[in-house]
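Sample intake sheet
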Amino acid sequence: MQVDLNKLKTFYTLANAGSYTGCAQRLCLTQSAVSHAIRKLEADLGFDLVDRAGRKFRLTREGEFLFQQCAGIFDRIDDTLDSLAAGRGHRISLTLGAPVEFGSSVLIKGMATFLTHHPHIHVDFVLDPDLLDPLLADDLDIIVDCIPHVHESLVCMPLMREEYVVIATKSYMENRRIRAVADLSRCRLLSFDKNLLWWKNFINALAGQADFGCESVIRISSVRGIINAALASLGVGFVPRYTVLKELESGQLIELFPETEVLNDQINIYLKKRNFDKPPFSDLIRHIRSLHL
């Protein structure tokens, strides 16, 4: 049986992407071209690869089997090309994903040394709150995330504990007479959301031992925005400690309720199992873990 390898790679990309739209975007083709290639491959093989009975994209049993076999084949081809590229001094590209604030405040600032010592590795950055689907779809190679992800194809490596801090300017604290948690009822709170889910680690740490309320909630969609709003005395913020170390040290911001043992989040590194032992991936991970976090 002779099969067109280009159509086989189109099928593999389609199965990885999980949609005709995603496959078309990755291969720079039209959706009709992708659909035509898959139907021609099915005709050559003599069986269906995609289950077209339902509304949701799904592979047939034969499609699932072929996808798993293709993964091993194309991964070996990619490994071979990477080895050849490294041996000839050609660049290997990796895409690193992270939440916006952690990526810009920590990863990007700490990447110059790595790129200097690994000139054959090129790193692009995607800073976004939603990282799992792009990782599973191979749009990202490695992600650093505080959201726990469990998937059979992934390796998870602990990186650090993310500590949080309640912040305000000294003038705001004095004007609102903040001495105890109950005094927040006279304050505006700065949060990612109106329901204060962003504040859950602080609220849960109180364990009902203190009344918790506020004058109002100002919704701000980024950590840096919350920090700047706190600096402008718009209210009281709640942010990862690493993001305001300079402001706390300089006295621009004051840590409120330091005696409260605020719950922490775990930041982890995630990547596909098949990439775990590859030198470019392990080199980048080793560098990330060496950063002073």
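Comment: The first strand starts at residue 92 and ends at 98. The mean pLDDT is 89.
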